[in-house]
Structure formats: C-alpha cells, structure tokens
Write a structure and sequence with these properties.
The protein has five helices and nine strands. The longest helix has 25 residues.
Length: about 190
C-alpha cells in the first residue's frame, strides 16, 4: 500500500518509487540518522528502546505491506502515544500529536530504515526556497536545505495549502479537468 498525504500534489510519475520500496515491509522517504533528533529525545529513546539511530522523514509518503513487521511497527506507534510527552515529541500546532515521531521511533525499534531518494520522490515545504512549480508541465524545482531538488510529489503540509503556490496549482488542475470534461461533452454531441 502506498499512502500519499492529501495535501500533496503529484507533479509527475512516481513509478520509480516501487523499485525503491520493493524489499521493504514499511518505509518512508527520508534518511537514517544517529544524532540531532527533532522527533524525540534521542538519548532517552536509546536508553528505553536500545535503538542505534532513527529514520528522519516527513509523513507525506508511506509504503507498507501486509506483513508481520509492518503490523508490529503500527502497533508500537500506537503504544508510543502514551510516551509522547515523556519522549519530548513535538506537538503539531503546539497542541496536537503528530504521527511522524511515533512512526519514526517505532520504525527504529524494528530497524526499518527509510528510503533516501535524494529529493526525487517527495519533498515537503518546510525548509524550502525558490519554489518553481507548474503541475500542467509536470515541473517542480526548489531548494531544500541548500540543495536543488525536483520531486515527483510535492507535499505542502496543512498550513502551506493556504499559500499561493498550492492554491494556484489546484486552480490550474480544476480548470484543466473542467475544460477537458466540457470538451468531451461537446464532442459527444457530434459523435
């Protein structure tokens, strides 16, 4: 199963991701880290769960198979909600829990590493600049943490869906679909 967050725009084909995910039970697009954790208190997590590192990712894309390992990761993530504050996991909007720290720690406990696809698969808006996007031309380029990337999936994240780029591209898609549909109705009158 491939989960793509609803506040994402598909820029171009992401079929190449299937090859990257083929040997995984559960994965996200990101990187494996051994220090500097934003998701939770890493030292405490190492002590509590004997982890050596953790996957750092944005939850805009997850892949999982119907497998025992994926089941265990999801169950552990649900259990970890009870330790959310103890592990100093960040609150989304300063009041709500978010799934990324829970999934990251659960994946770390079961040694499930993320897919590091260098920004070709999915990128999220925080930390980016110089966004140039045209969904109808299947183009998206931006600078993410100092590196130029061209993602197939642009994950905007809740607050960024109110911004100019997301709203403009959604309007373009609406007009494209509306015109294409209207054109087909128009042609059907003559066929």
């Amino acid at each position: 199963t491939l989960f793509i967050d609803a506040d994402s725009l598909i820029i171009r084909s992401f079929n190449f991701l299937w090859d990257l995910f083929k040997d995984k039970d559960i994965a996200a697009l990101g990187r494996w880290k051994v220090e500097s954790c934003f998701f939770f208190n890493l030292e405490l997590a190492k002590e509590m769960f004997s982890i050596t590192g953790f996957p750092e990712f944005n939850g805009g894309v997850y892949m999982f198979r119907k497998s025992n390992t994926a089941y265990k990761v999801f169950e552990k993530a649900k259990e970890l909600i009870l330790h959310y504050q103890d592990l100093k996991m960040p609150l989304h909007g300063r009041k709500n829990t978010t799934e990324e720290p829970l999934m990251s720690l659960a994946m770390a406990i079961f040694e499930q590493k993320p897919i590091d696809e260098t920004g070709k698969g999915m990128i999220c808006t925080p930390g980016q600049s110089s966004l140039k996007i045209d969904i109808l031309l299947k183009k998206c380029t931006l600078i993410k943490y100092g590196q130029k990337v061209q993602p197939a999936i642009m994950h905007f994240g809740t607050v960024y869906t109110f911004g100019f780029h997301y709203r403009r591209e959604v309007e373009k898609l609406k007009k494209y679909v509306q015109n294409k549909f209207s054109y087909k109705i128009y042609l059907s009158k003559f066929i």
